[in-house]
Amino acid sequence: MHARSALFDLYGDHLRARGARAPVAALVRLLAPLGVHPPAVRTAVSRMVRQGWLEPVKIDGQPGYALTARARRRLDDAAARIYRTGADGSEGEWDGHWHLSILREIPNARRREQLASQFAFLGWAPLSEAAWVGLRHDAEVDQILDVEGIAADRFRAPVDDDAASFARRVWKLDELGASYDAWLNEAKALADSAGDEVTDEQAFAVRSELVHEWRKFLFLDPGLPAELLPTDWAGTRAAAFFDFHATRLSHAAGRFVDNCLTVH
């Protein structure tokens, strides 16, 4: 597990609810069970500060790092999607329209890749290099385009009777379903390694690995409404498995986090 990804997972899954800050020494202790060594932790922290995700703070006289406001918003959104804690368990009711964003200029390859990653996180899919489709008008899309300095035309189009086929093709649902099935096979073996006699540290490590791999679906699954999904959707089975084991290991994992935060 890369240090930067492990830090995002740690802050999003545990520290966000514990003041969104931690001493450097605690971060090192917390990432040790995940195989992340101290120099890698410090390098990743420095990089996240430069990128505007973390900011340095003092905690009981010790150097530490806290989430920035931007990072809190992003991780709050990610948590709502991971654990489906929105009012209706999704990201909002679908209005039955496709929302289109047509870029007026096509950025270079590097910026295009960055843009694609950000759009994918928000659940949008590419129709071409310049055209993207989503399920709803997302203000964060406008913010991304503004930051990138890219002008775009935005449209709202009604769907036709072939909406499910369109969604299946554009969001590559057959491939996504296969990815869910593959994740489920691997996750079962991982969950089996954390049985009844699991220690707090082992529970933390196993749960962290489950969350880390599950979080990748935030960039793959747009959260389509049921009417656009194939029958017997693999994502539903995978989500039920994740919810059960994430909850089962939560108390012991949280206890390990609390112990690491209180050790001086």
Descriptive notes:
By secondary structure, this protein is an alpha+beta fold. The protein folds into three domains: 3-72, Arc Repressor Mutant, subunit A (Orthogonal Bundle); 97-158, Alpha-Beta Plaits (2-Layer Sandwich); 172-262, no CATH class. Helix content is 54%, strand content 13%. The chain has ten helices and seven strands. It has helices at residues 3-13, 24-31, 38-50, 69-83, 109-121, 139-148, 163-170, 173-192, 200-215, 234-262; strands at residues 21-23, 54-59, 62-67, 97-103, 125-126, 131-134, 152-158. The strands form two sheets. Strands 5-6-4-7 form a four-stranded antiparallel β-sheet, covered by helices on one side. It has a three-stranded antiparallel β-sheet with strand order 1-3-2. Helix 1 (3-13) crosses helix 9.
Topology:
Layout lengths: L2 H11 L7 E3 H8 L6 H13 L3 E6 L2 E6 L1 H15 L13 E7 L5 H13 L3 E2 L4 E4 L4 H10 L3 E7 L4 H8 L2 H20 L7 H16 L18 H29 L2
Antiparallel strand pairs: 1-3, 2-3, 4-6, 4-7, 5-6
Helix pairs in contact: 1-4, 1-9, 2-10, 5-6, 8-9, 8-10, 9-10
Helix % is 40-55%
Form type: globular
Count of the domains: 3
Uncertain runs = 86-91
Oligomer: single chain
- What distance separates the N and C termini? 26 Å
- Strand coverage percent: 5-15%
Q: What's the story with the biggest beta sheet?
A: 4 strands, antiparallel
Keywords:
3 domains; four-stranded antiparallel beta sheet; three-stranded antiparallel beta sheet; 264 residues; alpha+beta; 10 helices; Arc Repressor Mutant, subunit A; globular
Task: Summarize it.
This protein is of the alpha+beta class. It has helices at 3-13, 24-31, 38-50, 69-83, 109-121, 139-148, 163-170, 173-192, 200-215, 234-262; strands spanning 21-23, 54-59, 62-67, 97-103, 125-126, 131-134, 152-158.
